[in-house]
Amino acid sequence: MIKTLDSVSNHEHRQIIEKTGYKVETLRIWKTGILKHSISNPSNEQLETFAMNVDAVLEKSNLHIDSKNEIRANCTSHFLNERRRTSKQGKETKENIKVVNNIKKKIRDNNLTVVKADKGSCMVILDRNLYINKVEEFMNENGFVKLDNNPTSRLINKVKNFRVSKEFEDKFGKYKNLIPSNPKIPKLYGLPKLHMDNIPIRPIVSLINTPVYKISKFLSDKLKDLTEFKPTYSIKNSGQLAESLKNLQIRRVLN
Fold first, then answer.
1. Confidence tier at 52 by pLDDT (50, 70, 90)
2. Number of domains in the chain
3. Is residue 15 part of a domain?
4. Which domain holds residue 90?
């Protein structure tokens, strides 16, 4: 069984918040993540073609007959082992797909939603209505106002009709490359803060594929290049952190 809201303070690497039961096999699939790869099992026709190609190469070689037979035997053994391995993996994949489909059905039937937690790389499953209420609560508490009309079309037209100089395009490329082909409005979603009382959300606004997404990214990169901006109090990734701390000397202070 999975953890509930009452025990969320003791969450593990994968934390689930709701009261629907899950079997051990289902939880195992959750931990493996989404199935991304399909496994190819060589057909008889492929094996026959490969065998003919090997024979053609061997016949043209000056190898002794025993060496040729050994190569043929090794190739046959390798392909048979590969077929057994992929056949076994194919069965496991089919079983995993069944479990994944069962998970999707259970989420759909119980009106749940899946989101990432704010900290700890946890995955959270919670009631969809509860999630929506938490997002709306945040919006109401922070002065969000509902617009009478959608300004996206007007913004898209302004972006498309903007004109740049020939010098700009000669140096940076065509301006139309900075305009998304099918722009959308920004999306607001929330990451549950499992470590806090009442589990509030941390709001995230996704600007991917919005009318000004490519332009904003372009300007940000160019301004960094022009100003040679280097953040003093932040790091790029864990590798940069390790490199920065490698030669750090820490003095021990005795009382």
1. confident
2. 2
3. no
4. 21-109
- Torsion angle defined by CA atoms of residues 204, 210, 215 and 221, in that order, rounded to the nearest 10 degrees: 30
List the single range of 87-91, 113-117, 179-183, 249-253 with lowest mean pLDDT.
Answer: 87-91
Q: The tokens 């037979």 sit on which residue?
A: 69
In contact, 175 and 189? CB cutoff 8 Å: no
* Type of residue at 201: I
Whether residue 177 is contained in a domain is answered as yes
Same domain? 223 vs 142: yes
Is 110 strand, coil or helix?
Answer: coil
For residues 179 and 77, state if they share a domain: no
Higher-confidence residue of 238 and 37: namely 238
Asked if 59 contacts 38 with a C-beta cutoff of 8 angstroms, the reply is no
**pLDDT tens digits along 12-25:** 433 444 444 555 55
**What pLDDT score does 239 carry?**
85
Q: Residues 90, 161: one domain?
A: no
